[in-house]
Amino acid sequence: MSHGPSASGGAIVAAPPTDAHHDVPYEPVFVGTARAELDTILSRYPTKQAALLPALWMIQDARGWISPAAMEEVASVLAITPAYVKGVVSFYTMYHQHPVGRHFIQVCTTTPCNVCGAEDVVKAFLEHTGCADLGLTSADGRFTVIEVECLGACGFATPVMINNAFVDAVTPDAVPRIVSELA
Amino acid sequence: MTEKKMVSLTIEGRPVSVPEGMSILEAAKMAGVLVPHYCYHPGLPVAGVCRMCLVDVEKMPKLAPACATSVAEGQVVHVHTPKVLEARKGVLEFLLINHPLDCPICDQAGECELQDYTFAEGRADSRYREPKRFNPVEDFGGDVLYVPNRCILCTRCVRFMSEVAQDPVLNVSERGDRAFIGKAEGHDLTDPWAGNVVDLCPVGALLSKDFLNKARAWELDRAPTICTGCSQGCNAVAETRDNVVVRIRPRPNDQVNQYFLCDTGRMGYREFNRRDRLEQPLVQAGHALEVTDWAGAIAAASRALAGRRLTTLVSPNLSNEALFLVNRLCAVAEGQGLFRVTMGSVAPLPGAHDLALRAERAANATGARLLGFSDTANLADTVQLGDALLIVGDNLDGIDPTVFDRADAIVYIGTALPDVLSARVQVALPVTNTLEEDGTLTNLRGRVQRYFQAKAAPGVARPTWYVLADLLTACGGAGAYYTAPEVFAALTAAHAPFAALRYESLGLTGGCITQAGAADTHAGAGQ
Amino acid sequence: MGYPHPSHPRETPVLSRYFGDPGARTLDGWRQRGGYEALQQALATDPQELQTIVKDSGLRGRGGAGFPTGMKWSFMKPDGKTHYLCCNADESEPGTFKDREIMRWTPHGLVEGVALAAHAIYAETAYIYIRGEFTEPYAYVTRAVEDAYAAGILGANAMGSGRRVDVHVHRGAGAYICGEETALMNSLEGRRGNPRIKPPFPAVAGLFGKPTTINNVETLTTVPYIIKNGADWYKQFGRPDNPKSIGTKLFSVCGNISRPGNYEVALGFPMGEFLNELCGGPLPGREIKAVIPGGSSVPILTREEAEAAIMDYEGMVAAGTMLGSGGVIVFDDRQDMVRQIARLTRFYAHESCAQCSQCREGTAWTTRIMERIRDGEGTAEDLDTLLAIAENMSGKTICVLSDSCATPVVSGLRKFRHEFEARIAANRSMVTVPGASRAPAA
């Protein structure tokens, strides 16, 4: 799997993880074992629509983000419309509507962490990942750094979420090591 | 039918008794009190989000949304106390902080509920000192443009598309003040009922491309009418500017179209602006048509019809009154009446009861059938050598012209003379179109509904029923009618299904004929 | 106990007893610690009786609103309808991280409480809605549910009782508002997490339109202890002069404090001692300036007010604030209150679901003014405007997010107005047009 910079020449836009190019036909997510997994999920709810959030998680886990084509797919699988799916996707901040870096770094900067110096942690991540700004992906496609609202780990300021993993009590000093350990 | 329990309450000091379960907002309407609101619409599920309709209900700790609060026995509701006014002022100020004050270039100005309530109750100034949010205009497809900067996120459009049209192509995207009405790429507002979102939008966020920049709301003249696009008989308002129809919008009628009108109906107005109108009565003189006066034309027409077997071909868009008089003419001349109906595909509005764009694309086929006309006989099989042919309103599209050569005499009554007749017609009589006259139409469920003149007729064109009444008199019949209600009265006396109806009491929502079986036989595919 | 710190002798660890003990995480480990005995007992007990015990215990909802749990359960009758139980594990109130620790250390404790409550409200199906960011708690709870199914604790014949109890774990995806109970239900149904208008209340028409009870993680985890030890045992926790606040409560402490973490104390604990003894007081050389005692949505207290407050529902109201979710955020003398209140309003503006006009526009407007003042471009009239907006945002919307944004502004302005005024006084611009005060490069 290639994660090189996109051919578009954009310096800071990384190649999306999989369904990268518009001319590549969309590969459905819900086939084979994934379809079976979705069927199991569907059995837990009285409506198909209730499986939307879990299904979106499956897409994001598989593809790294939720593309318009993926929204079409999940809409048809759950018998809802793409517009409806988009309304839901855009409500929840953890769903990526655009490709992000291989390591998606979320630094909590809400008040409890903010008073403990979270903004310095953010600065350190921007500096050591080479991300030009919040929300932008580094030129090598490895990193995207965002500020996130309360991660619910306020006693462990500053918590940082890197993809699905939590790192508690991050200080600016610890950032270079954390970044260097990310492939 | 079980009677609903009634609940008595007081709204703004006015006692009112309403059915249990009704919202305070609807109850207030019955008490004659308007509770300002945006997201509430009687044709949509309640959202309760704009918070404009907050009212003070005694003994409730907080202001209550009138749209989402049911009436209760003995409730005392205040709509205009300082506390409530202050809350509404607050909502208006919030809605305006990001709203461009572009009323001078906004199509909605003059019929904008944000403008109206701000003028009535809002602050004179804004305390907002920050930059306004900006999003570009988006083409939603169909006839609809979205101007997000003006949007107040009332979600009427989203609820209409998802709950009423049941075609959820619109959504609320994003959150907080970044939210906007969105759609999915490649899925446009092409639903046959999508145009309703423009009417439902209380501000200028959803606009009709067709109406864009055509007129200011205050320049328009309005008249109640009935859409002639199909046999549903949707109640509508024809809006004209300088005698040109610029827009047709739905007019509420719970029994017919609730609050809605399909896009086919909306776009049908162009027909009423046709410029190729017959403006003067014409008679054949040698090999050319010559202008004449009405008296001469009527006399010529009666001479043309006299002594011949009469076949009439009428348009199923004619009023009941016109059809009745053609029927009388047939009776005098022992003729027969035919009509043709254009058929199209059915487009139901799933969330509304018994509402669809019907297969029969004509407003009064039901009336035509009830008044003795047949749509099963074929004109070519019916017209015999030497017949007189009276054509009223039919445009003759698709008819083999040789059929006209069999007729000895042809009289045409219509708004525009079909080319095929220019050399064949003895007399051509100019009449008004539906928007230029008063009359009634019978919809597919047998509801007889009035329509009112919305614009002036060109030249000396006269209402069809008026011309037919003169012709009937000239042909020896009793045709001394001077108003549409007089013709209608004669119709009701002569035709049992209409017997119980009175023109004046039809009001703006119509009344039903008393005979079963009036249903549109061609609408089976629709419902 | 004050994980990650050793338990303080003045704590009353019931729920937190096994925090930091990985052995309690497994099914076997939980059973060895007496786990699932209460569920076994409850499944053989009539739901009505369970409702009565919980009502008698005085347990109130630990999610923030403090509604009596037994009374909430008693709305659920044996009416033959499908009922649902929702467990609110969307813990997202800034300053609060107690449910996270419950789920990380004692996931079976939660599963047990959920299964028990489902039975008590005549429900066969329960959903645990865990916020999307809680990947670790999600993994532990999911594992616990799987193990409980495998052991026959959950399923068609829960613990051999003949009763069906299904528990499903549902993951959120990043939305503070989904902690609001009706928003959570919408989210579970695959919708935008918009709060619903009430009525109808969840007990009448909740999840999937069916009668539903929704309880917080801490509340549900407490229940098995009450069933096992009895209502009278639970009533011993609390101050004798206040029978309205019963039990132990987890308080999450964060911000500028020596020992941040979770502390479980009996309700009625004096906050001054709590902050200075249990939590170790301010960081060396600093002083506490302000405390938000119940999660970011409750009014701010000054240090003096906080130190005099009693940590229970009524004590906090008496102090002019609320117990809320028990998230204690401490600000020391280094903190700029204008900056931090601006940061809080930004949080609410980010999280507003966009339904109600006052909230959608008001949270964003408030934030813009707060950040302008923070950046030294405020004017005196901004303070009046902030209060006016706050008034228009309060008590007028479907849920209380709007009120929650107004709260720190109003209480902050009341108690730290001098900091706002100092910021404004430093604004050298004599015009009120935003941006105009940015001096050209010298």
Beta strand % of chain B: 15-25%
> Mean pLDDT score of chain B, rounded?
94
Q: Low-confidence segments of chain B, ≥5 residues, pLDDT <50?
A: 517-527
The Cα radius of gyration of chain B reads 27 Å
Tell me the Rg of chain A in angstroms.
18 Å
| String of helices and strands of chain A | HHHHEHHEEEH
Gross geometry of chain B? elongated
Structural class of chain A: alpha+beta
What distance separates the N and C termini of chain A? 14 Å
Please tell me what the overall shape of chain A is.
Answer: elongated
Characterise the protein shown here.
Chain A is an alpha+beta fold and 183 residues long. Helices cover 35% and strands 10% of the residues of chain A. The longest helix of chain A is centred in the first third of the chain and has 12 residues. Chain B has a seven-stranded mixed β-sheet, covered by helices on one side. In chain B, helix 2 packs across helix 3, helix 7 crosses helix 12 and helix 8 crosses helix 13. In chain B, a hairpin with a 6-residue loop joins strand 8 and strand 9. Chain C has 442 residues and is an alpha/beta fold. Chain C is 42% helix and 12% strand. The longest helix of chain C has 25 residues. The C terminus of chain C is likely disordered. Chains in contact: A-B, A-C, B-C. Chains A and C meet through helix 2 and helix 5 of A and strand 3, strand 5, strand 11 and helix 14 of C.
Write the layout of secondary structure elements.
The complex is a heterotrimer of chains A (183), B (527) and C (442).
Chain A lengths: L31 H11 L9 H12 L4 H11 L3 H8 L13 E6 L2 H4 L3 H12 L13 E6 L11 E3 L2 E3 L7 H6 L3
Parallel strand pairs in A: 1-2
Antiparallel strand pairs in A: 1-3, 3-4
Helix pairs in contact in A: 2-3, 3-4
Chain B lengths: L5 E6 L2 E6 L4 H7 L23 E4 L6 E2 L10 E3 L3 H16 L15 H9 L16 E4 L2 E3 L9 H9 L5 E4 L6 E4 L12 H5 L5 E3 L12 E6 L8 E7 L2 E7 L12 H5 L14 E4 L2 E4 L2 H12 L4 E5 L5 H14 L2 E4 L7 E2 L7 E2 L7 H6 L8 H4 L5 E5 L9 H5 L2 E6 L12 E4 L8 E4 L4 E5 L12 H11 L9 H11 L16 E2 L15
Helix pairs in contact in B: 2-3, 7-12, 8-12, 8-13
Chain C lengths: L26 H6 L4 H7 L3 H11 L11 H6 L9 E6 L8 H8 L1 H14 L4 E6 L4 H16 L15 E6 L9 H8 L23 E5 H13 L1 H5 L12 E8 L5 E6 L2 E2 H8 L9 E5 L8 E2 H6 L1 E2 L1 H6 L8 E6 L4 H15 L5 H18 L5 H14 L7 H25 L17
Parallel strand pairs in C: 1-2, 1-4, 2-3, 5-11
Antiparallel strand pairs in C: 5-6, 7-10, 8-9, 8-11
Helix pairs in contact in C: 2-6, 2-9, 5-6, 5-7, 6-7, 6-9, 14-15, 14-17, 15-16, 15-17, 16-17
